């Protein structure tokens, strides 16, 4: 195990003479929310993970790190769905920022997590802190009151997420097989 340029754990590259086949290098990311810990695994691509509980109650004061378009998207939802929309947008932004190494969550209001949602693409603008980049973000099954998103630098065929607290079972799979909704929460 080694770490990439941003400190994320990845399986070390074997020597070239070992003849590593594509799809044999595992990359992982860890995320936590309240008393639950999650791991996201993918082959051959760096991955970043964001996990958050869906907020309850009014969300108005939580809208500050969002663009005007995103604020409208949250506020136009029925009151009972606003918290899930907010958590979904936030985990997309946070995973993308973590992937590109930009820990500048204070600049989150300049990042549009909604416009490229259908393709899963989020563009992180460059700044003095870093070059920016593009992240491909997808929601992962984490339970009815939890939202998890993983970000990769290219579209990924499958990201697997595990809940690392009892019962130590996979929370579901995204991309490879149907997810088992509800196991993660």
From TrEMBL:
InterPro entries registered for this protein in UniProt: 4-PPantetheinyl_Trfase_dom_sf (IPR037143)
Domain of life: Bacteria
Record key words, sorted: Transferase
GO terms, molecular function: transferase activity
Region (Disordered): 1-21
Record Gene3D superfamilies: 4'-phosphopantetheinyl transferase domain (3.90.470.20)
Name under which the protein is recorded: 4'-phosphopantetheinyl transferase superfamily protein
């Amino acid at each position: 195990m080694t770490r990439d340029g941003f400190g994320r754990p990845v399986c070390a590259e074997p020597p070239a003479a070992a003849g590593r086949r594509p799809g044999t290098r595992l990359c992982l990311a860890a995320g936590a929310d309240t008393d639950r810990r999650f791991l996201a695994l993918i082959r051959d691509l760096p991955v970043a993970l964001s996990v958050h509980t869906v907020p309850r109650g009014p969300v108005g004061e939580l809208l500050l790190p969002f663009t005007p378009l995103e604020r409208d998207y949250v506020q136009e939802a029925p009151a009972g769905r606003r918290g899930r929309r907010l958590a979904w947008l936030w985990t997309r932004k946070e995973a993308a920022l973590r992937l590109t190494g930009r820990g500048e969550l204070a600049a989150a209001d300049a990042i549009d997590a909604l416009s490229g949602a259908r393709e899963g693409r989020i563009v992180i603008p460059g700044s003095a802190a870093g070059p920016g980049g593009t992240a491909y973000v997808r929601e992962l099954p984490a339970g009815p009151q939890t939202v998890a998103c993983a970000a990769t630098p290219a579209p990924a065929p499958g990201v697997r997420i595990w809940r690392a607290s009892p019962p130590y079972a996979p929370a579901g799979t995204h991309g490879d097989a149907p997810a088992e909704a509800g196991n993660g929460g």
